[in-house]
Fold this protein.
Amino acid sequence: MKFKNYLNKFAFVGITLAMILIYQFGLINSENITAQAIQISNQDTEFKELISNSLEAWNTNKPDNLAKFYAQDPELKFYDALPMQYQGWKDYQTGIQQHLFDNMPKFTLTANDDIQSHRQDNLAWTTFTWHLSAELNNGTPIETDGRQTDIWEKRDGKWLIVHEHISSPVSL
């Protein structure tokens, strides 16, 4: 009988201890999940603001206003709709002036509400879709949708785009 009482007490203590550990682990785990959610939320807010500010710069039709968002390294690649690619910021700056802004006096890019950001240390990538309302020099209106992926690198405390890929759906 004493042995049975000992087993019952041992089982009770063991179950109680297990419940306490599970409860504490649950609290730690839920705190981590909450902390991660807050970090993701703050991160999304930071990149939503960066993207909004960069699109405002695009909407000025002046590549010089965009320069502060892009790393200036000559070996970086930027993929745009026209032409297929640019090599380095200087090439991109010249190309968007020639292919876009010189041909479209009215140019308005608007990000849709689907911006996502992912961050790993000093690197991040963002994805979003956008709408372009523009007008060619001859008055022809353009309304189109596209998608964009940017790779960002934090340099000297500032996020800069080190790679950009812009595309639009194609009807086949």
Q: What stands out?
A: Confidence is low (pLDDT under 50) at residues 17-23, 25-30. The two ends are 83 Å apart (CA to CA).
